[in-house]
Design a protein that fits this description.
By secondary structure, the chain is an all-alpha fold. It is built from two helices and no strands.
């Protein structure tokens, strides 16, 4: 349902843009492009028809906008912030140089005579330190 309404909404948007661009300017642009219209409808009747069609398209566009908003709010979404996500297990530690990797405890030790490095844990000072200002 949401996809159908979205397609209708997009078609209305394109039609509304086209309808606004078709309308004759009533001022500005120093009279450029204001050639006379002869034929089926008079200038006033054409203006009334385009104005009403634009109003209908605008109303339908507004209704589909509200419908899409309602449909998107009707679905239960789990809204989570990136701040609320659990922290990673620790910083990534690169393996030892030379491509040797540490073995798992299940295989009975290490391979290549190396042991995996322990993750770096930041140390915090036990007492606050006061910065010293060099004297001249």
């Amino acid at each position: 349902m949401e996809i159908v309404l979205l397609v209708v909404h997009m078609l209305l948007a394109v039609a509304l843009i086209g309808m606004v661009l078709i309308q004759r300017s009533e001022g500005g642009a120093l009279g450029i492009g204001g050639g006379g219209m002869s034929g089926f409808m008079t200038g006033r009747a054409t203006a009334n028809l385009l104005t009403r069609a634009t109003a209908v398209l605008a109303a339908l566009f507004f209704i589909t906008s509200l419908g899409l908003t309602w449909l998107s709010g009707a679905k239960p979404h789990e809204r989570r912030s990136i701040v609320d996500q659990p922290a990673k297990s620790g910083p990534a530690v690169p393996g030892p140089a030379g491509g040797a990797t540490g073995g798992s405890p299940a295989t009975g030790g290490t391979t290549g005579g190396t042991t995996p490095a322990a993750p770096n844990t930041p140390t915090t000072p036990t007492t606050p330190s006061v910065p010293s200002v060099p004297q001249r």
